[in-house]
Amino acid sequence: MNITDSLYILPLAEKAGAVQEVIYPSLILDEYYGPTLVDTGMPDREGAIEALLKEIGIRLEDIQRIILTHQDLDHVGSAAAIVRASCAEVWAHAADTPYIEGTLRSIRLPPPAFLEKLPPAVRVVLEKGAEPVRVDRQLQGGEVLDIAGGVRVIFTQVIPPVTSAYTSSGTECSSQRTQ
User: Fold this and answer.
1) CA gap 71, 86 in Å, rounded
2) Taking CA atoms, which of 64, 150, 153, 156 is between 20 and 30 Å from 141?
3) Virtual CA dihedral for 50, 132, 125, 59, nearest 10 degrees?
4) pTM (whole model) above 0.70
5) CA 48, CA 13: separation in Å to the nearest integer?
6) CB crowding 89-98: b at 16 or more within 10 Å, else e
7) Calpha distance 122→137 (Å, rounded)
8) How far apart are CA 25 and CA 60, in angstroms?
9) Cβ atoms within 10 A of the Cβ of 36, count?
């Protein structure tokens, strides 16, 4: 879905067992710096993202950077696979970095006692979690990224404790959704 000349929303259908939802990674296009993917969906969704990108004439290997808005599995799940396919840099808020890189367990994953009560298809996805991926650039709130005419990092400390949103000329560029 085209929002502006430089911003696309990628409706990505997710299903884990009986749970179905649509999440919305974003694509920021910049003639000079190339395409930036904002969030990557659940694990093993790189093929679906590749198909959505193809619809707008972008190849997965064209992605220059991935901005991860926060550590939730449905935002970071396919980041490592997309990096392997594209050699993209990963940018994320500094406070999210240890969770994305796998040095700390995501605080948003349910505890093991709760996981045991979930349907097997959902439990398998959550137990596996996201493959760790290196964060190449740690972002700070208030920072303006030099893409698409300037994208501002907005740090918000809510649940999850670390969440960042990104705006460009007043247009929300985050794939953040209300929990």
Assistant:
1) 21
2) 64
3) 0
4) yes
5) 9
6) bbbbbebbbe
7) 32
8) 14
9) 25
